[in-house]
Amino acid sequence: MILRIDRWGTELPPPSDPDPNAAAAVQELMGGRFGEMSTFMNYTFQSFNFRNKQGARPFYDLVANIAAEEFGHIELVAATINTMLTGASPTSNGDGSIEGAMDGLKDARNTQQFIAGGHAALPQDSNGRPWTGDNVFASGDLVEDLTHNFFLETAARQNKLRVYEMVDHPAARALTGYLLVRGGVHQIAYARAIENLTGAQLMKMFPTPRIATEKIPECLPHIERGDHKRIYRFSPDDYQEIAAVFNGQHPETGDELEVVDGPPEGALPNDLPPQPKAFVPDFHPEEIAEIAARLRTDAGLPKEPTGEVNEPAA
Amino acid sequence: MILRIDRWGTELPPPSDPDPNAAAAVQELMGGRFGEMSTFMNYTFQSFNFRNKQGARPFYDLVANIAAEEFGHIELVAATINTMLTGASPTSNGDGSIEGAMDGLKDARNTQQFIAGGHAALPQDSNGRPWTGDNVFASGDLVEDLTHNFFLETAARQNKLRVYEMVDHPAARALTGYLLVRGGVHQIAYARAIENLTGAQLMKMFPTPRIATEKIPECLPHIERGDHKRIYRFSPDDYQEIAAVFNGQHPETGDELEVVDGPPEGALPNDLPPQPKAFVPDFHPEEIAEIAARLRTDAGLPKEPTGEVNEPAA
Amino acid sequence: MILRIDRWGTELPPPSDPDPNAAAAVQELMGGRFGEMSTFMNYTFQSFNFRNKQGARPFYDLVANIAAEEFGHIELVAATINTMLTGASPTSNGDGSIEGAMDGLKDARNTQQFIAGGHAALPQDSNGRPWTGDNVFASGDLVEDLTHNFFLETAARQNKLRVYEMVDHPAARALTGYLLVRGGVHQIAYARAIENLTGAQLMKMFPTPRIATEKIPECLPHIERGDHKRIYRFSPDDYQEIAAVFNGQHPETGDELEVVDGPPEGALPNDLPPQPKAFVPDFHPEEIAEIAARLRTDAGLPKEPTGEVNEPAA
Amino acid sequence: MILRIDRWGTELPPPSDPDPNAAAAVQELMGGRFGEMSTFMNYTFQSFNFRNKQGARPFYDLVANIAAEEFGHIELVAATINTMLTGASPTSNGDGSIEGAMDGLKDARNTQQFIAGGHAALPQDSNGRPWTGDNVFASGDLVEDLTHNFFLETAARQNKLRVYEMVDHPAARALTGYLLVRGGVHQIAYARAIENLTGAQLMKMFPTPRIATEKIPECLPHIERGDHKRIYRFSPDDYQEIAAVFNGQHPETGDELEVVDGPPEGALPNDLPPQPKAFVPDFHPEEIAEIAARLRTDAGLPKEPTGEVNEPAA
Amino acid sequence: MILRIDRWGTELPPPSDPDPNAAAAVQELMGGRFGEMSTFMNYTFQSFNFRNKQGARPFYDLVANIAAEEFGHIELVAATINTMLTGASPTSNGDGSIEGAMDGLKDARNTQQFIAGGHAALPQDSNGRPWTGDNVFASGDLVEDLTHNFFLETAARQNKLRVYEMVDHPAARALTGYLLVRGGVHQIAYARAIENLTGAQLMKMFPTPRIATEKIPECLPHIERGDHKRIYRFSPDDYQEIAAVFNGQHPETGDELEVVDGPPEGALPNDLPPQPKAFVPDFHPEEIAEIAARLRTDAGLPKEPTGEVNEPAA
Amino acid sequence: MILRIDRWGTELPPPSDPDPNAAAAVQELMGGRFGEMSTFMNYTFQSFNFRNKQGARPFYDLVANIAAEEFGHIELVAATINTMLTGASPTSNGDGSIEGAMDGLKDARNTQQFIAGGHAALPQDSNGRPWTGDNVFASGDLVEDLTHNFFLETAARQNKLRVYEMVDHPAARALTGYLLVRGGVHQIAYARAIENLTGAQLMKMFPTPRIATEKIPECLPHIERGDHKRIYRFSPDDYQEIAAVFNGQHPETGDELEVVDGPPEGALPNDLPPQPKAFVPDFHPEEIAEIAARLRTDAGLPKEPTGEVNEPAA
Asked: Can you give the pTM of this predicted structure?
């Protein structure tokens, strides 16, 4: 089971100039073969299907815990795409007509972000194709699964670097800077697991792709905070044996790898504005707000919304 | 972000007679269009893409929180399939040969459970096709998303009923009994959300499919415990406004609907035995166990595994 | 636009012994690359996308009219599969329990016929994969489209022959006997169209696959009725120019090819019994019948159902 | 079986400025999950697989008849796309060279409309992916199928609204204006069917998405003609019991719902010009016309084409 | 088994102005339904699955040998796409930063050529969808397979013509000119095979699509060299009986068809420059070169690379 | 370009008892994610897309050459499946009827082997799904591609082991014995390439999966012949620098790795008998043989077939 926390793993900038084609490119990090849905679902299935957990507990704990972090990554990729699409049509209802509200969006690379979705992320890749369960590898053979995971993180790092180069929207840069650091930790973790199981020295392969993480400016704040050498334990009580596998020195910086109890502090999520002409969440969002307020009162809840969000200045 | 808890939402029986074809049928509840991956990912994406959360907070809280519960459901479906496949090949290494270790499994309906997976669940449906992102509906229009969700839970209930009829393996029956009750709660929740937003009276449609839940014997313990009228709040602090939407009477039993803080107690997961001849987690699982023990010691962790599991009597 | 007639192109036998695996094989004729959905949709799209219809009217009329007949073919394939699945679970509600109602069906090759469908046909092929728009070829180049269509009918004939060999259920035999004769007409029609356009002599390729149609006993009644040499004009007033293309001698029998105004007489459809334990159309079908009767009366319609069906003796 | 009528359900404007990207967006209404192929095939399969038709005749008649209307809708979507693509390459052969005939089209979002198709509609969605049988839902459970259909029409209405906003080509506007009105009728029809079966009051959900249909200018002529409250009976003799289900008041206008015998008058189809440099229907379309004329004469048919079309002034 | 020769079937121009959208269009000739992967894999599977080869040797030899040539065609399509993408990002490392290295490419139609691939060809079609085994037709029925192959080559010719019209990049023009001539030979070969087996006169259908090959300027050099009437025997010793089937006159030119022993001379492949900012083959390609040189020396190989390439002037 | 040689990489036994379900399982080694189509196409695309070949020549030579060997592996998998399906219907025409010729095959797991194929291999996996281009990884980053290839061969080895365990048909055992040895060589080759590039010691991971190759009896003859330590150079003149990368000691046996010029001797292919009732290659194969003989004579070729095959005693 999981508990959910309405905070983001890192801060994202507020909406600025919308950039649909850039948002379509960022989809690769969501639903691509090496996107975050893949990392999330690969490790989740591997943890579900783990046999003889007690016999291989440190490895189980590592995989199961990284799976938990990856949920936060699909959340961030979605938030980034949604930020980049905000304002692609008017964010207020205006004259109440819908005529031409999406002018120009017919030329967007991924039109389904606007027709199927509400100016929003889809479980698709950058060519507009859906994520598929065929992206999951869970053989049950521990060394083989770890070999896969190391490869998966390597390919994912490549994808993040290339999306970084392709897209200069501030939200995308904030995202890729964060994901490169955190994905780098997972890449090291799986390499260390293989080393600890087989004796093969994989640390010599880092960084792979062969560019120092610190060369990416948006990675620096996360490195400075130490997030490049740290696994957070995403559980109240479980996954206590990660440190049996995740240990030694960081292959790029030489820092000692460490395990931290609990999730990172993260940031309050931005509450993105409605897109009423696209019926998100309605053509008249204020009517929903009224109903919500009434229902809240009827239920004896506070008059104002209880959830905490960041209301970013656009 | 999420925190993960290594407990199951409900107890499952230990492995008994393996039944690969039945396990292949249960895959529909995993990776089918109306399986648990679909409910999980639909509500997750809807919650990620929710705009103007503050304006529609009770509805956001409802959707985001149900998403969290669904993670526990894919976990249970996987555990059920894995239980049903345990022992389909010898669970000990025996003479050390691999010759004919999977005799007979060539006739199994889903051979990839044994070739790609480790006698284990796959993100596929009952015809062996992968789950796909095309199963996600997240339009951003609140009424429309809720309409979809009500339909989704209705179709999911149908699938659970039919799998129940088709498969009599004890693990599958325990699973479907549980999922029918919990999915029924979600079906009601979305219907109530629509009622509260639009005034349309959907309670008259229950039960749909038109058979009383209490007619299914495996549902009774969960109904007796009250799980048919209860939403658990799967978060330390968030999703406080569910009760603004999830209220009124249960359409089948007349009980008052209620929101409970925190997850259900659930049960310790069964630790399923290795399948060494299928290299799960290795041809020599005991070697991995030795390495794990050594790594644990090196890291200053207890000598014995720290994680708690249920070691079911086969 | 179309008008629909509730009659079948040919008579089918009533349900007898259910045969799920045979029904799964017959799916190839529904949703396979060369199944009836493909012939229907190929000719339909070609007719929709036909440019300069007036300039090429006889060819347009031929393609558009054959498209119309193909609708009746998908109807018949569905009816056949449904017939073969009738009785795979009890056709009456019995004791009102659902326990084990689908015993044994977990071993069926296509479990989705029972989980997703109501003991019924799906838009899938014989390996349980969905029909896809990629099966449609409509290049807009007339000779090329006709070349494709001749190939398509040739491959479809092969599939029908092989399904005939594989499945001996009476409904499947009645179906394939009919489809072989009617598909044979279309194969000739496209070959004649190419001959009339280019001068290439394709009649020498018949029969292809190289076995005389009259060797298949279930084809004989249709040949005797003359249906092997006849195109029906499936329209009140349109498609008058088919005879400009569909003319000359039948390559197997030497009969003169002919065009007949209006659809064939066909047969009343069998009204297949409910599968209440599978909730088709409900767990209590008689309740629906009562509601239907009441609604009919309220609307001033006759007390008894107005539609004509054949109530086959099982 | 069906009869086909070579008339369109509504008039479309002649080709004007070609707009490939807009045509690619309109594909969502053809081959998208909620496009017209989906509505057509969903209701068609539901009608094929309907068991105990006599017991539930009014509901069968409704579904089977709406299926028939949907054929006319895929026809119109195709015609619209074809109109929007006309002239994207020269419509005359010119100097007989093919060099650069499709200059610029490499930047079109859906290049297969020009490479696979003949400047024409494809069975694909707006991201260039094929329609698939997985879009069909036909559970056999009547209430469940109707629940699905109501959801399907709701999502389809959303897609039409968003395509309307995105595309201002006159053909697309004519199409969406028409489809919004006719799809709205089907949405009401399925809601009424559920109400009549279960007592749940769904009329309160209209309009959904929550914008009055009359706000869309291109809908007005159809509303004025009364097409928003009318089901046409698309059959010479069958489907007589629709009125038992489709009755009461229109939820937006309060008009009495009504059933009309026979199809709407519609309009003559436009005969779109050839695209000879793209080989549609040939590089030398006039040669085909000569052959056609000769074949017509040889067959004793009139010298001039018999089919009636509208030759629109470009 | 095969032997591989590092020469191209024809010369291609060096990289010039990169044109990503044109390269995306050319993908249709790689991974489209009628692209070179399809011709290659269709004939390959037909040759693998050929039963009774001795009884039908000339036909087997023809199909197996054409399969071998098609490998060279996928090689050329890849080389063309790679040429067209060269320089889309800087081809030197410059200041060592990766910031903005792929500016502008977010608007490219196929972003995966840059994210998944290294500015390179993918096994996809022009809409960015992967080639699939469903494109293979290998029925085992000889006449039917040949009928398919004739259709396949006809549709492939159409695709090449349309890509020719759409794309004017010199590499694409060189490619399509070559493929039109060589594909034309295969089209004739399969038509002749059918004629020789059945007596049907297919030569009258040529050219199809109905435009003379010699009208395409880039085809002329290949026609002048005689490559339009020639099958090369791609084997040291096998496939001696092609001439039993591939004989008679060329349907367009009247030249005598002929079989030539051995592959064409072809041309040295261009060695395309690295794209270091996209990590192809590395961020520091010179380091790899140093390692390679050292490894060569250690292994007693020449100091300089032994492979022959053409180093094209950009 | 390639030259093709009509010899198999290893000998296969003649047809014995047909085993359709086993043949369906072996499909995983053909069209599965880790089957031979994947290894073939991955290395082929990597070699096509290799930039700066001269700078990284030894690595290019290695990848391009292994690609060439993989063609022979898909050939062998096809031959194995075809062998296992031979005789599943009568291999002679008998009484000339087709009635019931495929009795029983409706229960086969992969019915398309008989309906779409001619008792033959398909480009599908063991669940009957087609191979797809999404299985290809070719990032252009050399270290990353090699990392992938090492993982790919590891997963492929797992699949071969599990198919070995599942299927005891003599042809499948001969196949898997051979592929395990040859795939093992490729696994070592890619590991060595990574070691030589980065210094990471991967040899310690062997064998992976962790079972000695020599434990599989069917591998022994190939090990004894030395095929476990040998790369064949599949080219007349190219790929001279493999030894710069493929060197050092075999991680399981300690033997010195070596490069051998030219392909292995292999074996003559078995000429599998026709399946006339399934129209492979015809209902009357002897007629085709007569035509072939006549065509051979007309072309001045020897009267008897020139190709060499092994005519296995059934």
From this structure: 0.98
